[in-house]
Amino acid sequence: MHLNLHRLEIFLRVLEHGSFSAAAQKLYMSQPSVSTQVKKLEASMGATLVDRSGARIRPTAEGEALAQYARRLLLLTEEAVAAVEQIQGLRAGRLRVGGTTTVGTYLLPGLTARFREEFPGVEFDLFVGNSGQVEAALLEGEIGLAVVAGGPSAPQLLVEPLLSDGLLLCADPGHRLAGAAGPLDPGELSGERFLLREPGSSTRDEQLATLELWGLTGAATADVWGAETAKQAVGAGLGIALLSEHAVARDVATGSLAVLDVRPRRPGRPIMVCHRRDRVLSPAESVFLARLRALRHWPEG
């Protein structure tokens, strides 16, 4: 009997996503190829591993038993690679890091570039998504480290605080309240449309909490996907939005967006770094984590 690690990984993805087609999308494979690989794994094991009769693929008793060992085998494989890379030092290797939209767009690229200047032999993958997407990528082993706004909830993750990030209420420069003298009362925002980030975004959670603080939970809202899209929508006059101070710093400085000073304010949200408890970090990830821990403020540029 021969166990193929690639087929084991495909098998686990099918179980995680509950269908051949969803696993195929995640693996960048065709659905027939995924199905064929699982069938070949079943043939090599001499057992049916998945129940195909329902709307969602589920493991058989044999499949459940194999899945438990497969997870351990793939984790051992990652540890073996990390051990070899540890011996090699940072002359080679790969840094796999992810970030929520604000962090991944405005913090990680600059830090990754500085890391690459110091260790040019290390390749990198940079994954950016909303909170739910980044946490899923971390749990599924697609990335080794994640830097997120707010704290992930999965108990499998180790989480450390790094920095903070405040939200500013932004409007187009021609807005009726732009340039108002002194702080604004939330009641002055009556009748405004608030642009909210997409569901799954930690920024959206902060936006909704601030509207509740201001007594504006009944205000008109519109969902906008992505920080850059939100900035462009605000600039076009489609509404006002609470956006990361770091995401809009350049826009505010150049005058393409105006900040409305509304009181009271919520405290800044924490920026956290996290990784899986059961996974050994590669040498590149360990050094990058040390660089993150050394940050005392949000780097400029």
From TrEMBL:
Membership in a protein family: Belongs to the LysR transcriptional regulatory family.
Any Pfam family hit: HTH_1
Protein name (Swiss-Prot/TrEMBL): DNA-binding transcriptional LysR family regulator
Domain of life, source organism: Bacteria
Keyword presence, Lyase: no
Gene Ontology MF term list: DNA-binding transcription factor activity; transcription cis-regulatory region binding
HTH lysR-type domain: residues covered: 3-60
